[in-house]
Amino acid sequence: MEKNNNLMSGKGEKGEWKTINGAHVYIEDGQSVEEAMNKQFSKSTSPDKAKSYATGGGHLSENGGYQGVSNVDSAPKFEYKQQSTTQLMKAKLKEAGIDTKHISIREGGGAYSTSYNVKIKSPYIDADEVKKIVNEYESYERDERTGEILEGGNTYVFATYDDSCFDEVSKPYMSKAKGYIDEANAQQDGYGISIKEGVTLFKSGSCCEIFVRNKDSNRQHFRVYDENQLSTFLFQIDQFGKIVH
User: Fold this and answer.
1) Tens digits of residue pLDDT in 203-214
2) What span, in angstroms and rounded, lies between the C-alpha atoms of 173 and 235?
């Protein structure tokens, strides 16, 4: 009972609470106002600001109030704002050296799930690197028996290039791409032409297939339907040493 009365009156077991310029500060026995301010607000403001606040030309009154400061608005405001998932994603991308001016992130979803659509608008940004970072924020659970994704509380992340991202940079490759396709189509099915080291184009029915030994020594395989698609692949191989999508 006595302890409760002390708390209500502003006193603790080893000190007491005082109101300093609108902020409630616990001052331990033998502790100065400056020390108490530094301790309480060290996580949200600098020691110099806390010192200025605590010694701002005023003094503690007998009732615990802070006197001598006429402008209460001049006191530092201690606020903490939690970063959104979008902000966290962009901060991580920046840390990895990725220019986020060319990346947009849109949040969506319904009542039971959240989704983030990451659009890459520069052809010089490796989509695989972006996916590796933003996919850390994806979370969902699967049924142990069927492997199906369970509904409710899931977060999905999709990272893709903007539709027109490679329109300009692929133009210089268009003529070569058409020539490669014509040459491959002149071969029998299953026979191919070597475009460059580690890159082969094969005829396959009504279209072509490209095989790429990428920079990680993994083999990539994609269907090629026209010179527009192949010209984009050729740019990506020169830029990233692989095909990204």
Assistant:
1) 988 889 999 998
2) 7
pTM, two decimal places: 0.62
**Amino acid letter, 126:** D
Positive or negative, the CA dihedral 19, 21, 27, 33 is negative
Q: Which run of H or of E encompasses 26?
A: strand 23-28
Dist CA 166 CA 187 (whole Å)? 29
Q: How far apart are CA 136 and CA 127, in angstroms?
A: 15
Residue 111 class from Cβ within 10 Å (0-12 exposed, 13-18 middle, 19+ buried)? Answer: exposed
Q: How far is residue 105 CA from its own chain's centroid?
A: 9
In the chain, what are the domain boundaries? 2-74, 85-161, 171-240
d(CA 122, CA 164): 10
Q: Is 163 helix (H, G, I), strand (E, B) or coil?
A: coil
- Look up residue 38 and give its two tokens: 């530094």
pLDDT score of 139 more than 80: yes
Using an 8 Å Cβ cutoff, are 188 and 194 in contact?
A: no
Return d(Cα 93, Cα 134) in angstroms, integer.
8
3-class DSSP state for residue 200? strand
- Is there a contact between 125 and 101 (Cβ–Cβ < 8 Å)? no
